[in-house]
Design goal:
By secondary structure, this protein is of the alpha/beta class. The protein has two domains: 218 residues, Spore Coat Polysaccharide Biosynthesis Protein SpsA, Chain A; 107 residues. It has 13 helices and ten strands. Strands 1, 2, 3, 4, 5, 6, 7, 8, 9 and 10 form a ten-stranded mixed β-sheet that branches. Helix 5 packs parallel to helix 9, helix 8 runs antiparallel to helix 9 and helix 9 packs antiparallel against helix 10. The chain is globular, with a radius of gyration of 21 Å.
Length: 335
């Protein structure tokens, strides 16, 4: 009796990754699951990454590798979209070129996909900090209380509580589901995963989680997490505007409430990251003022039981007079 082995499309962007790309490609080559399609998209990288890629191709002609050369640098959102459309597999897997995956990564994800038929399967990750040579398991944790969900409102409820990491990588995703629902990345956004995953979960009906650590996430000098500038936080404000528009457009009362909760949590996260990265009091005050014009709790929300006390406190602190809210935020953060 034959064992079903669906084709899996692994999407890897190529841009300024000459230090890491061979390690990444080797981790794919060494997978115990072999029915793979490797899609490499060259976003006009200015370094020697493609020389290394070509040497890898020459050394491993047996691998199913598709190389796509972009005519101009287009950014990761465009690269992701091109990868989705170019994928032939039943499932898509995003892998960043400076990271790697465990040998059994695709195997354990596929086994879960075949067993559950979930639209999205999420695995766990390990942080590898190259600065101090430390390792942290579950760096971006999946804290959902169950391993399988088959209800959209339950899925989005867990997401709004922070139960799923918003990264696009380390998830096996049904390609037809993404394409049929038209959930693509918005060009121009630096934190494109946040908005894409938000939009994806608005339409997701089945989701599964496995406990295996399958993704090794490397922290190094070029990592975005260490190099956020004002442009990154302007980008987060744009994402908040998209969230707010989804809230206004949503007809389902329960889902609308969950989106509002997600927005309040996301505002808090952005302010924390911004202050930690920039320590710019004036810019913090400016963004608090901008956030106050977006979706927030109303009087009914405060007196009702649909939102917990923690959400009410966060929303209250965010919407005090901006100068006072800024001072209070800094005091709360620094104490």
């Amino acid at each position: 009796m034959s064992i079903i082995q669906p084709l899996i499309s692994i999407n890897i962007p190529i841009f300024k990754c000459e230090k890491y790309i061979l390690r990444c490609l080797d981790s794919v080559k060494n997978q115990t699951y072999k029915n793979l399609e490797i899609i490499l998209i060259n976003d006009c990288t200015p370094d020697g990454s493609m020389i290394i890629v070509q040497e890898f191709l020459n050394t491993h002609p047996d691998l199913n590798i598709k190389v796509i050369e972009l005519e101009e640098n287009s950014g990761l959102s465009v690269v992701r979209n091109i990868g989705i459309r170019a994928s032939s597999g039943k499932y898509i897997y995003f892998l960043d070129s400076d990271d790697e995956i465990t040998r059994d990564c695709i195997d354990v994800l596929v086994k879960n996909a075949l067993r559950t038929d979930a639209q999205i399967i999420i695995a766990q990750n390990r942080w590898i900090n190259t600065f101090d040579n430390t390792i942290k398991d579950f760096g971006f944790p999946t804290t959902a209380p169950r391993k399988y969900y088959n209800n959209n409102l339950e899925i989005f409820s867990v997401y709004s509580d922070g139960g799923f990491p918003s990264s696009s990588w380390n998830k096996l995703i049904n390609r037809d589901f993404v394409v049929d629902k038209g959930v693509f990345f918005v060009p121009g956004l630096f934190a494109q995963d946040e908005l894409w995953f938000f939009n994806l979960l608005l339409k997701t009906d089945t989701l599964a989680i496995i406990d295996n650590i399958t993704y090794l996430y490397y922290l190094h000098a070029e990592s975005v997490i260490f190099n956020r500038k004002k442009k990154n936080f302007e980008n987060f404000l744009t994402i908040l505007e998209h969230f707010s528009q989804s809230y206004k457009d949503e007809k389902d009362v329960v889902l609308k409430r969950l989106i509002k909760k997600k927005i309040i949590f996301f505002k808090e996260m952005v302010l924390i990251m911004q202050w930690k990265a920039l320590k710019d009091k004036e810019y913090l005050c400016t963004n608090i003022s901008r956030m106050q014009k977006m979706v927030r709790l109303n009087i009914t929300d405060y007196v009702g039981s649909n939102f917990c006390m923690d959400i009410k406190k966060k929303d209250l602190f965010q919407n005090l007079p901006s100068a006072f809210a800024t001072k209070l935020f800094i005091w709360r953060f620094e104490r």
